[in-house]
Amino acid sequence: MLVKLLTRKTLLFTLLLFSLIKVTAVYAQVDSVTASVDKNPAMADESIVLSVVAYGSANNSDFDPSVLEDDFVVGRTSVSTQTRVINFDTTRSTTWTTILIPRQEGTFTIPAFDVGGKSTQPITVRIIPVSAASNNKAREAFITAEVDVGQPYVQQMVKYKVKIHLATSLQRGSLSEPILENADISLIGKDKDYSEIVDGQRYRIIERNYAVIPQTSGQVKIKGPLFEAEVIDRSQNSFSYFNQTRPINRVAPDVVLDVQPTPSDFDGHWLPSEFVQLNEEWQPDLSQATVGEPITRTLTLSVLGVSEQQLPQISGRYPPDFKVYPDQATTASVTREDNVIAQRVENIAIIPNRAGNFVLPPVKVAWFNTLTKQTEYAELPARSVEVAASSTSTQTNTLPETPTPVLEPQSPSDLDNDSGSPLTPKVVTVTEKSIWSISSWVLLVVWLLTLLLWWLNRKPRTAAHSTTQELHTSELETENWKQLKSTLKGHKSSEIYPAFIKWQSSLADSYNTKLFDENDISSSELQEELKSMFASQYAQGDKNWKSDTLAAVLARLRKNIIKNKNNSSSLHPLYASQRVAT
């Protein structure tokens, strides 16, 4: 019994060993490989399913359909494997399924493929035009593509429109982007969904628009996008409770563009468009220009049919008496009625240094009109600017002494005049007698004595009033100085400058001293600090500017002014006449 049992086990082990060797031999090579298509001939807008089957052992990467990209649009490739074991006889197969969409009509050859050392047979495929299809059968889906300009200039925007026509119910779908080398392609707006009748058949239309900007001249080809979808299967054999779907694949036809180079006579930044506009805005109004006070000029360039990167810098010239602080420009794009409008906005802070009448030169932007094929200019005309002096600069005006006329009251008859004319006072010349009477002399002496007594009593009051006024202006200066110091701690230049102007005005009233002289800043150190403050607000300077140095400079200047004022007031004049004069 033991011998028989051992014999049976040995036989079973031997059989299993041979089976494993046979299975290993099966997995060690590819026995054969075949290739086939699902339709031949096929219409130009239809997809073809290419199936390659390898019998035996094969890797998933053994099949490469990239050699077909010259004649077809190669879609996704799916791989499936199948293994069967019958009476220890194992067979295995690997199937690659690839979607091919012809790019044009004609006869094409699908070459032989080498898979695991075995080759397929070449396949000749005939692609017929869509018009060759039966007129009685409507096409269930197709795609069209068109452009608005066939001969654009380099960097001119071309609107590329794709329309998907569907005569069946769409379950799901996706559309790839068109392809053009050396070009910028972007989507314009949102998809449109509507109905349209084509050749007597009603289709659902899904429209999508693209902006194509070629960067090189010459003959270029826009490869149409691929539409992959699942549609409801309405065949007679479909009686399932749930709707069954089937895949469809369509590709848009290629579009050829003849891109023109830049005209040789164009000078400047190349800007092809149909419409260009340049606007400006002043804040505050230009008529309120004052020495030392900043004015912001906003320049806006709007161009139709270009990208943001194509917009040029807006250059402007200013008089040498103006300090200019340009801010960083901002760009943006908007879509209106399937048109792309690019905008560039530049803000420039301008500070006049001197009062007077100035002329701002015109601002020009050259562009090429693609409709008229001519060079044109978007222009802002020259402007005349009247800059007023700063309110902090005090000027003494000497008025000539004029005699006071004597007004004679009008009579009632004059007041009752109904003519409606304004009442005009009558000027009467008073003629004084050269010989005075005794009573006049007496009255003169009494009047002089009264005037002397009034002057003696008024003098202390005048001095007291003057002292009170000085104390009032001094207190106002001190209060404004405290406000300025508090503002300086915040390091905000937009709040510091108004507080500085307010304090400087009270400083001039209190100590008869001003930090501005002839519409400019007398202290060079203070001038540099104010420049740094303006630069931090308007220019591309140090955005983290601190006001500590400016506060120290102002504190030192104020201390010197107060010290000099006290020293001069402590010295009394040597003569009484001088004291009376002061």
Distance between the termini: 149 Å
The proportion of residues in beta strands is 35-45%
Low-confidence blocks of residues: 21-28, 394-435, 571-582
Helical residue percent?
A: 10-25%
Largest sheet: 5 strands, antiparallel
Helix/strand class = alpha+beta
Structure description:
The chain is an alpha+beta fold and 582 residues long. The chain has seven helices and 32 strands. Helices cover 24% and strands 37% of the residues. The strands form eleven sheets. Strands 20, 21, 22, 23 and 24 form a five-stranded antiparallel β-sheet that branches. It has a four-stranded antiparallel β-sheet with strand order 1-3-5-4, with helices on one face. It has a four-stranded antiparallel β-sheet with strand order 10-11-14-13, with no helix packed on it.
